[in-house]
Write a structure and sequence with these properties.
29% of the residues lie in helices and 27% in strands. The protein has four helices and four strands; from the N terminus they run βαβαααββ. α3 crosses α4. Strands 1-2-3-4 form a four-stranded antiparallel beta sheet, covered by helices on one side. By secondary structure, it is α+β, with helices and mostly antiparallel strands.
Length: 136
């Protein structure tokens, strides 16, 4: 399903009604969005403990993403995807997020159109180790 060497918590096909689009008529209605999210995180604690408190709460992720889609009212899917990815990386313990957002009703001849992005957490652990220059 996912091509990764890390643990992944995922959401597939989250359905959200939101204002999205650049045209005046799009700004006056809501449209369906289909959202897939893969959050790379360490699930070893939850796997060992079988305790929900040690897990990344995918219900909370779904609730947050739905709320953010409705609140942001983006014109572009690219903007919406970037904002959601940033918020997820800030709120949840994950190293990497792959997020796709599709508009299934945007193009009559297509099942859906959309965007997919990948973003990484910006933490000290994720930074490459810089070698010190030799003192001369």
């Amino acid at each position: 399903m996912f091509h990764t060497e890390s643990d992944v918590v995922f959401v597939k096909g989250l359905k959200v009604e939101a204002v999205i689009g650049v045209y005046a008529w799009e700004r006056a209605i809501t449209q369906p969005l289909l959202i897939d999210i893969a959050l790379e995180t360490d699930i070893s604690s939850a796997a060992a403990s079988d305790d929900v408190n040690d897990a990344l709460n995918y219900k909370a992720v779904c609730d947050d993403v739905s709320e953010w889609c409705q609140a942001i009212k983006a014109q572009l899917l690219e903007h919406l995807a970037g904002k959601i990815a940033d918020k997820l990386l800030t709120k949840y313990a994950c190293r990497k997020i792959t997020l796709s957002i599709a508009k299934p009703t945007a193009i009559k001849q297509a099942d859906a159109v959309g965007v997919q992005i990948t973003r990484y957490a910006n933490t000290i652990e994720d930074q490459p180790i810089k070698e010190k220059a030799n003192d001369a």
